[in-house]
Amino acid sequence: VDLSFLDQLMLNQCPNIEYNVILLNYQLPAWWENALHFANRIVVADGGAEQFKLKKRDYIQNCVITGDMDSIQNETLSLLQKQGYQIKKNMDQNTTDCEKALNSLDDKIPILLLGAIGGRLDHTLYNVNLAMKRSNQPIFLINKVNLIFIVNEKVKIITNQCQNIGIFPFTRSKIKTEGLKWDIDGEIAYGGLLSVSNTVLHESFMIDTNNAIQIIVTGKFE
Fold first, then answer.
1. In a domain, 6, yes or no
2. pLDDT digit string (tens) for 78-127?
3. Contacts of 60-69 spanning 24+ positions with Cβ under 8 A
4. Global pTM value
5. Residues 44 and 128 in one domain
């Protein structure tokens, strides 16, 4: 898992991965439109359109706006329709707007979920759960200061030295790390050992796990 694509996006450089973007209705990193510019496909989830309308470029060819449309203002919806954007109304009340957006993407390339964390805690936890349900596909939940993604096997993670790392399981898990200030070789669980405010010693670290776990990177992603 190479996180250097974040530095490239912050510098408005074409990143070293192909990816899709889902734009949600909460705190976005300052480079959010850079991410749209280089994306294969863009899905704007309902109220995320209120931020999307501030865009400086056109993305008509590879963008769709979806959701039950209960969070988007009528003026915004009308504006985007006049600009030629595809609107797909989905009234399924058993799925969130984020879930509707994820379900609309049928390829398996990485997804950047922008605006998916922060704000209401139940929304954040639900969005993390959506990523966990798709743990075989790289999904990155990003705001200005946090990055969350799921790993479910032995991986090398390339990131910046000294970034803070948290490791949280969904279920009781056995993990082994190499390259952190406080390496772990054992079991982690809610109600037991967790890894909080750990630090990457060099430019990468390795983690091996027998179950899906959350990696939380804290830094300045703006």
1. no
2. 999 999 999 999 998 899 999 999 999 988 899 999 999 988 899 999 99
3. 60/84, 60/85, 60/86, 63/36, 64/88, 64/104, 66/90, 66/97, 66/100, 66/101, 66/104, 67/97, 67/100, 67/101, 68/92, 68/93, 68/97, 68/100
4. 0.93
5. yes
